[in-house]
Specification:
Chain A is an all-alpha fold and about 260 residues long. Chain A has helices spanning about 1-10, 15-40, 50-60, 60-95, 95-110, 120-125, 130-155, 160-165, 170-210, 215-225, 225-255. In chain B, a hairpin with a 6-residue loop joins strand 9 and strand 10. The chains are: A mainly alpha (about 260), B alpha/beta (about 270).
Chain lengths: ~260, ~270
């Protein structure tokens, strides 16, 4: 009995446990899902079994791939724009008290508008397709980045600032040597979240105002009662979302070696 | 071999030109609309190369005095003169160390120590070309404080005492004329503190700067200082000035002598808590 306990403990504390355990649990969930669907005789147009989903995936593989790439592209473009804007905005707010007083309330007010409501407007202005997707992705993602960057600047210890000031350092030097490095953990923490938001924004826009992308595919499949395909689309969505998050989580670990 | 002992408080060994001069300095805050006098009418001079301590209970404005000297918060009432010129903004050639080391966690020990050389002229403009020389300067300081070999470590890998030592090296690497210390050893245990006094003394001798120390520890003040000013609680003023007449350099053994204890007791008698 003791031998088993030690082996299990060793496994739990190992690095691979973080990957293997969720993987095993996910597989078990799918197996349970499959069994339940057959046992309870749930029809495929309500809840398809995983096997049906996989069949749909292999049949419509190329279509899924093409749409997935479309979503990925609009997500990443929107995300890229949001990083640039968010960082610039964040630094402006953190740097200037006036900018903070003017911009912050506007940003908060703007951010509380559900972007879903704006998508039809974008479609009207820019036509359906990639532009509303990129725009929605951008709008959802830039706010957390801006807030985090400005918070990073705000939380610099006054004593660290005093060390630089007592040496006669300029504001620029403060930003280069203290402000920016100090904000990095905050920025990277927000990137994980922002990329997920960008992804969500892109998909939302596609469900309403596009003829390409996974969002569009899910809606289109649902309306033609090809539920296994719709689920296949959702599965692809979740895999993409996890990968995007994981990429930025890993990037964070590398860049912020000192904050952990 | 005749060894020459320099006595503290001896004006013959120090330049007669004051580095710092306080002229009727005061400080007031507005509290609930009423102005509260924090510091009242401080006038004193600090000579070049002198080691001066300010002791007194918490909240009597000792940190404010350091801020006035460094120029981070110039004196609103009266003037503090640096080489005869009133201080209105951060003065050059100053090294500061606070109670918390405030090292930059994204830089290793060597990079933290070399920070002032990236900002202060004339080191700043030659930084790229003279970098090996600057690294040598940093290494020498680190060796003096017993941290040789720790150059590549990061602050989170060091103990509190070690971080404070790095902070002191950083305060001195640009050969400042003035070293300002705000309770730098307050967060350390008593035995580490005693080691730090010895180390600070050798650093001070090496760089040959004027040092102003704020502390609560009377033994620390007597160990390190030439002159000790006792401050009263608010409204603060200087209520006692003690010139320390112990031979240099001070050693741990000297702390156990009667003479040392008399000095500490003398200070203690003049401390008022309210």
């Amino acid at each position: 009995m003791t031998k088993f306990a030690t082996k299990f403990d060793r496994f739990i504390n190992s690095k691979s446990a973080g990957f293997v355990l969720p993987f095993i649990v996910t597989v078990l969930i799918f197996i349970l899902w499959e069994v339940l669907t057959y046992a309870l005789k749930i029809p495929a147009y309500n809840l398809p079994a995983p096997s049906a989903i996989l069949t749909a995936m292999s049949l419509k593989g190329p279509a899924l791939m093409e749409n997935a790439l479309q979503t990925l592209m609009t997500t990443l473009i929107g995300f890229g724009l949001s990083v640039v804007t968010g960082v610039i905005l964040g630094f402006t707010i953190g740097y200037s008290k006036i900018a903070y007083m003017i911009l912050y309330p506007i940003l908060v007010g703007f951010n509380t508008i559900p972007k879903v409501a704006l998508v039809p407007l974008f479609a009207l202005w820019f036509g359906i397709g990639a532009v509303p997707s990129i725009l929605t992705a951008f709008l959802l993602a830039f706010f957390p980045i801006a807030v985090n960057v400005s918070l990073g600047l705000d939380t610099v210890e006054p004593e660290m600032r005093d060390v630089l000031r007592s040496l006669g350092g300029s504001q620029m030097e403060f930003f280069k040597k203290i402000g920016i490095p100090h904000s990095m953990p905050y920025l990277f923490a927000s990137l994980k979240v922002a990329v997920s938001f960008a992804f969500i924004g892109s998909v939302i826009s596609e469900t309403v105002a596009s003829n390409k992308g996974i969002g569009y595919l899910v809606v289109s499949a649902s309306s033609s009662f090809d539920i296994p395909l719709a689920f296949a689309g959702l599965l692809v969505l979740s895999v993409m979302g996890v990968i995007l998050y994981a990429v930025f989580a890993a990037l964070e670990k590398v860049v912020i070696y000192w904050a952990r | 071999m005749i060894s020459v002992e320099t006595f503290r408080g001896s004006d013959a060994t120090m330049s007669s030109l004051p580095v710092l001069e306080f002229d009727r300095v005061g400080l007031e805050y507005l509290v609930d609309g009423k102005s509260q006098c924090i510091i009242e009418d401080i006038s004193l001079t600090i000579a070049k190369g002198e080691f001066v301590s300010f002791v007194g209970p918490s909240g009597c404005g000792k940190t404010s005095i350091l801020k006035m000297i460094s120029g981070l918060a110039p004196a609103p009432i009266g003037t503090v003169n640096y080489h005869g010129v009133p201080i209105t903004k951060p003065i050059p050639n100053v090294g500061v160390a606070f109670q918390s080391p405030v090292l930059m966690p994204w830089r290793n020990v060597l990079q933290n120590v070399m920070l002032p050389l990236e900002i202060v002229q004339p080191y700043k403009k030659d930084f790229k070309t003279r970098k090996p020389e600057f690294e040598e300067m940093a290494n020498e300081l680190l060796t003096t404080v017993g941290l040789q070999g720790f150059q590549k470590q990061f602050p989170w890998q060091l103990s509190g005492g070690m971080r404070q030592r790095v902070s002191l090296c950083r305060a001195l690497i640009h050969q400042p004329e003035l070293l300002l210390l705000d309770e730098p050893f307050g967060a350390l245990d008593p035995f580490t503190r005693e080691e730090m006094w010895v180390m600070l003394q050798s650093l001070w001798k090496r760089v040959n700067c004027t040092c102003v120390l704020i502390t609560h520890d009377l033994r620390e003040a007597v160990f390190l200082s030439d002159t000790i000013y006792v401050m009263a609680p608010r409204p603060s003023s200087i209520i006692y000035k003690l010139k320390v007449n112990l031979p240099r350099p001070t050693t741990i053994e000297m702390m156990l002598s009667d003479e040392f204890y008399h000095l500490v007791a003398d200070l203690r008698r003049h401390i008022r808590r309210y």
